[in-house]
Amino acid sequence: MSSEFRKVLVIAYYFPPMGLSGVQRTAKFVKYLPHFGWKPTVLTVSPTGYFAMDESLLREVEQAGVEIVRASSLDVNRLFKNQKVVKMPAEGVRKFLQFCGDLLFFPDTKIGWKAKAVKAGEDLLRREHFDLIFATAPPQTDFLVAEDLKKKFKLPLVLDYRDAWLDYPFKYYPTALHRYIHYRMEKRVLRSADKVIVTLRSVKESLLKHYLALNFHDVVIIPHGYDPDDLKIDKPARSAHKRKLRIAHAGTFYAGRSPSTLLHALHNIFHSSPHLRGRIELVFIGNKRSEDELLVNKLRLQNDVTFTGYLEHAACVRQLVEADVLWFVLDNPYQSPGKLYEYIGTRKPIFASIVDGHVKRLIQESNAGVCVALNDVRAHEQALLQFFTEYERNELKQIPETFARRFNRFQLTGELAKQFETLMDIDKNALIKREEQVA
């Protein structure tokens, strides 16, 4: 490694070969950080059971020369180590398990990783010189690991909030005491941080509201994004006799994110306009739930809806590129799911079932989005018919390239590296792009 590279220790429990959207931001950051003069080493969990595995993302970061150090964990995922892929539980079971975890563990069920991770981090920091610690959450246990290492080794610490902590919409607080303990934990962790990164303005506003010691410039927004390398896919032509409007959704359904309203809308359209059956199809990419399959069967949409199951990231992106319209569903204003930015990267029109908030305004700003209320079946019917008419006339809108470019992960990693540089004692704010030095 060139002596001109700085070194960053990245703390991320969720990391490939685990799949799903929670790993992609970190994987892409570490892939591109060497292009901006930073050499990452990732501290993550040892192989364990999870809802999805994505070996392609692991190969991608390994090919980028990223060093990965793994520490074992005493959490429930360890029980499924040999099974690797764990079936997604039904929604009622998921909520019950979430409640039990939030009742018994602080800050989350991954706290059993902390001691081993801190020990592995200490060994690393004694053995090698690092310039900075970067921790991403959830799980918030990652922040506690980073806090301990920061106190012991006095390195600058950057926290990355992929989701809110105290105001996380799916966090249960069984008692006021539970919420207060989390508040005190987060306040303590933030006091140890030198810079805070968030993905969404509402999360920044939440932090500034709850923790008055933070000032506006302490918290920087770096949104999720898309990797242009992933989108270098030629869209195959569909034969004329098989042409139909294809609407795709990527991701996992849980809590208030459900395909139910969309499915009922499609059923109603086919009932009132039978000639449209076979002209519109839905493709759901990701872990499937039995309750969603049962609803499809009940509405007699088996020939119009496809569940692909979980796909490795490259295959998932191919499905998005091959679709005509991309469906997005969001039931709270405090999250900004990463898949939205891959949707933007494809530049396809976005059909959003969504609550009010910054994400809704972003989709509207794209000039190729249609936003409807989350549970309004009639509005979904109208939107589907609007998209079908535009598809038939070859008038589907595209997201402008100038808008999409704002979410290029390569450029966003450059923004992250600039934030790192502001914390260095020398060459402050002097970020030099060193692409030619990357092996």
Mean pLDDT: 91
The main sheet orders its strands as 3-2-1-4-5-6-7
Over all CA atoms, what is the radius of gyration? 22 Å
Count of separate structural domains: 2
The description of the largest β-sheet is: 7 strands, parallel
Query: What is the count of DSSP helices, taking H or I runs of 4+ residues?
Result: 15
- The CA-CA distance between the termini, in Å, is 9 Å
Structural class: alpha/beta
What share of the residues lie within helices? 25-40%
Percent strand: 15-25%
Number of strands: 13
Summarize the helix and strand pattern as letters. EHEHEHHEHEHEHEEHEHEHEHEHEHHH
* General shape: globular
CATH class of the largest domain: Alpha Beta
Highlighted features:
439 residues; alpha/beta; Rossmann fold; seven-stranded parallel beta sheet; 15 helices; disordered C terminus
Description:
A seven-stranded parallel beta sheet has the order 3-2-1-4-5-6-7, sandwiched between helices. The chain has a six-stranded parallel beta sheet with strand order 10-9-8-11-12-13. The chain is 38% helix and 16% strand. With 439 residues, the chain is α/β, with parallel strands linked by helices. The chain has 15 helices and 13 strands. The protein has two domains: 6-225 and 409-437, Glycogen Phosphorylase B (Rossmann fold), CATH 3.40.50.2000; 228-402, Rossmann fold (3-Layer(aba) Sandwich).
Would you kindly provide a brief summary of this structure?
The chain has 439 residues and is α/β, with parallel strands linked by helices.
Question: Helix and strand layout, with pairings?
Answer:
Layout: E1 6-11, H1 24-32, E2 38-45, H2 55-63, E3 67-71, H3 91-104, H4 114-127, E4 132-137, H5 141-153, E5 157-161, H6 176-192, E6 195-198, H7 201-210, E7 219-221, E8 245-250, H8 260-272, E9 280-285, H9 290-298, E10 305-309, H10 313-322, E11 325-330, H11 339-346, E12 350-354, H12 358-365, E13 369-372, H13 377-392, H14 401-404, H15 409-421
Parallel strand pairs: 1-2, 1-4, 2-3, 4-5, 5-6, 6-7, 8-9, 8-11, 9-10, 11-12, 12-13
